[in-house]
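Schema walk-through. Below, the input block comes first and the output block second. Nothing else is stored per chain. Lengths vary across the set, and this one has 329 residues.
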Amino acid sequence: MDKYVIEFDGVTCVGCITAVKERLSNLKESDLKKTDKSTGNSILESKLMKNQISKSLESFEGCCSSCQITIKTIKPVTGKDDEIILSADDSNVLIKKQYKQALERIIAKEEVACSDYCVCKTTDIDRFEEFSEAPSFSSIFNLVEYLEKYECLHFGMSVIDFGSGTGHDAFQIAPLIAPGQITGIDITPEMVDFAKKTAQKLNIPNAVFHQASNLKLVKPESQDLILVNNVFNLISNKRDFLQQVRTCLRSDGFLVMADEFTIDTLPESLRNDPAFKCGGIADAQKMEFIIRLYQENGFKILRKEKIRTYEIKYNKKNYQLTSGLLIFH
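--- output ---
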């Protein structure tokens, strides 16, 4: 069998990625080896000739009627080409692309969801009605209620909202900690711009926002509280992130993590499916596993709470997860 790299145009979302994978996986006399999670570009081993592959894929069906996926190039690959496409598999690219599109849907008042398998779709909350200026992508959309319940907020404190998105949590926390400041950090530039404009519109000067994929811009020992709401499952190097958290927190500071946790074991195919990546489900783990990870990195568990259990369906089978809250010192 010969090896080819197939490059695509018109791949715009995780649904497109899934469509590419399904189409190539079903191509006769062929074996799909790898699909890049951000571009859809794929490595295919096949007994078919280049022109046969091209003809087989000329009527390409995407994930919806608006998709216009087309083949850009098909070419034989060497070992070096193989390495190039593998190194291009950057989940941050996928995340930024998905959340940019999610923001566009919010602005158009279409829906609040980062993908078809977003945790938002496991609740029946009207997220536009709940906070129309800055809707939440998190399943625990009312995080501030839990922060107040456990007395996590006080006047004058410094707070980091890592993965701040539209600014939903930051805008609710800001008046509760004034004259302290909450700093939102998000990987998606469009989200940061949106949050900045919303802060001006709502006249919330103590909520500021920066684009970054880590905490390196934060001064050491400067923060009383770091919030990670439905973001931890998206972080690729979790141990490195936890060390950054420890560096940023004051000696009496603490971290609040809200996210999705598995109850049932998720299949590897689901974990590798980009459609579940941005929704915070693909990399979810059992709560006990996450607690051990934090403890191994020097944190002490103060509170743990499982808030809501729900099911997702994948390949005609149901899997249980829970939305939960962890507080560490």
